[in-house]
Amino acid sequence: MGAVRQVGLVILGISFFTSIALFGHVPRLRSTPIGWVNRFMWSIFPRWLFYIDRRFTGGYIGPLISGVGNYLMNEKHPLIMAFYLTLVSGGLYMFVKDGWQYLSPVHRIFVPIVGTLPYITMYQAANSDPGFVTLENHERALRAYPYDHVNFRPGVICRTCHLRKPARSKHCSICKHCIAKHDHHCVWINNCVGQLNIRHFLCFLGATNVFLTYGVYLTFDILQNVFMLRALMPSNTPISSLPWSIYMHLLGIIIVEEIYIGAVFLLASLTGILSYAFTIYHLYLIWAGTTTNETIKWSDWQDDIKNGDILIAESDENSPAEDDEYDEDEICRHWPKRTTQLFYRQDPANVTELPRGFLWRRVESLREMDNVYDLGWSKNFKDVFWPQEL
């Protein structure tokens, strides 16, 4: 059982660091072990290294570490893509080497088909345009979504691109562009996820889920119905008659004996849980009419609401008070949802005079704030899978 333990620890380690990469940035996980480890890995631990370097080498190693860290964090590189493809290719090799002979003719047809899906969808997602905002499509990008006057306000100029930032956009320091409806920069595809390619990103996640699910099914079937029955079970003894403890013990022995098939089963099982969780999270974002980037912004509002800093009022107009240099409604007439809410940040310990003409009250919950980008789940999904072209 020592071999099972070693293989399990390696796979658990891979799964753990994969979970940090997938979920470490999620606002709701800031106060969880995943959030703590994420901060330790990217903030606290590097500071410790620099302190030790200054103390014992006079800062000799620091610039080298900083250069490597800057490349890994702030430049486009294929290292994480290579890691993903290594896991997929290695898993396929181990499965085919020891498991192909036990497959039925039907599965021998489907394995090559399912096995190519991660490669095809990754290529599509990695090489797709996420929605780069350029001089040529800038006006169309401005017309895609209205400003909500909460997380996105008109008239803001990108300090790098020197273009007026469209609503829901964000400048990516790695891709060196403003991205329309920016969700996040995904290291797994070495590309941003935005307005034009989030559908390809979701197809990549879906293909990974299918690949892992099929792998778990096939490896478990081989481990149980081939090796366990052949090597360990008395003849004509149904597996269902075994006590759970004995069944798990026998399964562990089989995983040790058939290390390739067992390793693929464990790896696909554990990483499959993470892949499904990440997919469900992004489907939830679509259902809620938001993005990863906007979720971070809403999380900041949530903190201010808890501190009692946010006041709300209703305006008499069909949209918030205009604070831009142009008529917003002329730019984005097609959007069906507007808000009449006005918000004001005020520190309770430093009360200032509020704008007159409105009845102000303190916001008690984030649910009181309108999200103009949430049009209902069906229209939200349509906006993702059939986006406006730029």
UniProtKB/TrEMBL annotation:
<keyword id="KW-0564">Palmitate</keyword>
<feature type="transmembrane region" description="Helical">
    <location>
        <begin position="201"/>
        <end position="220"/>
    </location>
</feature>
<dbReference type="GO" id="GO:0005783">
    <property type="term" value="C:endoplasmic reticulum"/>
</dbReference>
<keyword id="KW-0808">Transferase</keyword>
<comment type="similarity">
    <text>Belongs to the DHHC palmitoyltransferase family. PFA5 subfamily.</text>
</comment>
<keyword id="KW-0472">Membrane</keyword>
<dbReference type="GO" id="GO:0006612">
    <property type="term" value="P:protein targeting to membrane"/>
</dbReference>
<protein>
    <recommendedName>
        <fullName>Palmitoyltransferase</fullName>
        <ecNumber>2.3.1.225</ecNumber>
    </recommendedName>
</protein>
<dbReference type="GO" id="GO:0019706">
    <property type="term" value="F:protein-cysteine S-palmitoyltransferase activity"/>
</dbReference>
<feature type="transmembrane region" description="Helical">
    <location>
        <begin position="240"/>
        <end position="256"/>
    </location>
</feature>
<feature type="domain" description="Palmitoyltransferase DHHC">
    <location>
        <begin position="156"/>
        <end position="298"/>
    </location>
</feature>
<keyword id="KW-0012">Acyltransferase</keyword>
<dbReference type="Pfam" id="PF01529">
    <property type="entry name" value="DHHC"/>
</dbReference>
<feature type="transmembrane region" description="Helical">
    <location>
        <begin position="7"/>
        <end position="26"/>
    </location>
</feature>
<feature type="transmembrane region" description="Helical">
    <location>
        <begin position="263"/>
        <end position="287"/>
    </location>
</feature>
<keyword id="KW-0449">Lipoprotein</keyword>
<dbReference type="InterPro" id="IPR001594">
    <property type="entry name" value="Palmitoyltrfase_DHHC"/>
</dbReference>
<dbReference type="GO" id="GO:0016020">
    <property type="term" value="C:membrane"/>
</dbReference>
<dbReference type="InterPro" id="IPR039859">
    <property type="entry name" value="PFA4/ZDH16/20/ERF2-like"/>
</dbReference>
<keyword id="KW-1133">Transmembrane helix</keyword>
<keyword id="KW-0812">Transmembrane</keyword>
<dbReference type="GO" id="GO:0005794">
    <property type="term" value="C:Golgi apparatus"/>
</dbReference>
<feature type="transmembrane region" description="Helical">
    <location>
        <begin position="79"/>
        <end position="96"/>
    </location>
</feature>
